Amino acid sequence: MSSDTCGGGSPAQGSNEKGSSTSSVDKQRDKARVSRTSLILWHAHQNDAAAVRKLLEEDRSLVQARDYDNRTPLHVASLHGWIDVAKCLIDYGADVNAQDRWKNTPLADAEGAKKHNMIELLKSHGGLSYGQNGSHFESKPVPPPLPNKCDWEIDPSELDFSNSNIIGK
């Protein structure tokens, strides 16, 4: 849909050129689209299958909505194990193998979060596990730097990570 893109050819705000009313209409349409995208992602996160279904009845294309990390509502539902929301999204044609910006599929997220019922649901609809397969949910050991022409040494046994947080995936 062209309403999802921001073109550079429209008149500047406040200009007197013809088409400024069209630009205003396009801006309103884009704003409404962003709002609906946020809503479906929010309702998927909140496990509100009825609200998700209502939004999809109004606009079926929202089933493929994406957030800033390229995650779909099905990614969100899969991560949390919201079966009813996932079934609704799949009924409306959600891509069970959609990949986010890290190339993770909804199945990889469900596996990482150990949502066994979700794993079975996604597999039964052709879901494949691409990406990090949930490894971003577990701590990873960080190897010490190699003593390559260093005038210092780090003894890993002296490091205390007990109060540290994992940043990123």
UniProtKB/TrEMBL annotation:
<feature type="region of interest" description="Disordered">
    <location>
        <begin position="1"/>
        <end position="30"/>
    </location>
</feature>
<dbReference type="InterPro" id="IPR036770">
    <property type="entry name" value="Ankyrin_rpt-contain_sf"/>
</dbReference>
<feature type="compositionally biased region" description="Polar residues">
    <location>
        <begin position="12"/>
        <end position="25"/>
    </location>
</feature>
<dbReference type="InterPro" id="IPR002110">
    <property type="entry name" value="Ankyrin_rpt"/>
</dbReference>
<feature type="compositionally biased region" description="Gly residues">
    <location>
        <begin position="1"/>
        <end position="11"/>
    </location>
</feature>
<dbReference type="Pfam" id="PF12796">
    <property type="entry name" value="Ank_2"/>
</dbReference>
<feature type="repeat" description="ANK">
    <location>
        <begin position="69"/>
        <end position="101"/>
    </location>
</feature>
<keyword id="KW-0040">ANK repeat</keyword>
<protein>
    <submittedName>
        <fullName>Uncharacterized protein</fullName>
    </submittedName>
</protein>
<keyword id="KW-0677">Repeat</keyword>
